[in-house]
Amino acid sequence: MQALVLDTNIVLDLFVFDDAAAKPLKAGLERGDWGWVATQAMRDELERVLDYPHIGSRLAFYQLQAADVLAGFDRHARIVEVPAKAGLTCSDPDDQKFIDLAVQHRCLLLSKDAAVLTMKKRLAALEVSALCAIPASVT
Predict the structure, then answer these.
(1) 95 half-sphere exposure, CB direction, 13 A CA radius
(2) Domains of the chain listed by start with CATH number
């Protein structure tokens, strides 16, 4: 099982927006192909984002509740200790927690955030693959 870290936008694609591109990742999580690691701060961020009005309207459109999304997070993510700060600093402080965790676990980091994706080469040097695209399966 390959470890991965998911930023909040990817989680929203999985559990709110019903994004077709996220379906293979969701299936891989269901099969146990991926070991999604997260921290409590990541879950807290998701819970906060689910209260944003534009997200609330999407939840209503898909006939979901915030609790449904959080249940999906809880079912698939393994909460781990907050890691030490990585040797790399993200220009967006809100994204640092994703970088730190991916570096600690030397794993795949899925993010749509430009500040994270501009760090791809530096992350690769630390055995972290940062991707915007959602992979269909373990490679």
Answers:
(1) 21
(2) 2-131 (3.40.50.1010)
